[in-house]
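S.,

Sequence below, as promised.
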Amino acid sequence: MDHKSVLLTELIELLEVKPHGVYVDLTLGRGGHSKLLLENLNSDGTLIVFDKDIVAINEVKVAKTLNQDNVIFIHQDFRHLKMTLEELGYQEVDGIIADLGMSSPQVDDPSRGFSYQEDGPLDMRMNQNDRVTAREIVNTYSYQQLVRVFYEYGDEKYAPQIAKRLILARDIHPITTTFELVTIVKNALPMKELAKKGHPAKKVFQALRIEVNDELNALREMLSDATKLLKRNGRLLVITFQEDEDRIVKQFFNSLAKVKQNRYDPHTIVPEFKLLLRHALTPSEAEVSQNHRSKSAHLRGIIKK
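The prediction came back faster than expected:
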């Protein structure tokens, strides 16, 4: 499946690109958001693109989607945003965007191990240089650790049953493929769950992917760094697809934009940031009909005053 960038025009419009500015796309993917952003930049503007998946960077380069001299490619986890920009000589930027969704080519490539619909190795690493894979987690984590991962990152209410069945299976032989894991999950669930709409292993796969890539901690570190890098009137826009991600972004943005009042001090502390949107922006019905993977997307933004 070709990758379709979610909330593409809405995000770029909210960014209000300055033609001579410096902008950062923290999740290059297949280059959809970056391409439209770059079209709004002059030749003396700069676009810095991050992705921890080298496959994504190489495919964009081969496709020449961003074939201009004012684009800088960075193969790096966005949790290292501030350090990386400082190494490049940038202390502040005009805008930062991040789309936290999986790109369709990643999901649809069985060799990456993200899909419960295709058989492949239990990998799930965004960055192929990272050491920890889903295979290592399912074969070495304790019962308590597996239950925690499935509960916290997948909201899987049958986490104890799945973890127990998983450990019984790996005692016989190591679990190495996605379909082996899918079978274990199905065998652990009651018939009433298997009869429900949606894939029974979806939550477990999501939980393992988040654990493998330490996604939520990386998100927290990125948000902290990104807001420190914004110039005055600089904007940070983030698209999330999971409740935990959206909660982290929402709470972080709200904390920065909240008017602080000390009851022992009559003076109000005016916040340095302001919300761009009172409520998260979601895709239109037309976009969802064309791209079902956009259904759970939430766009939030903040501006430095």
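Residues 112-213 form a domain with the DNA polymerase; domain 1 fold (CATH 1.10.150.170).

Coffee later?
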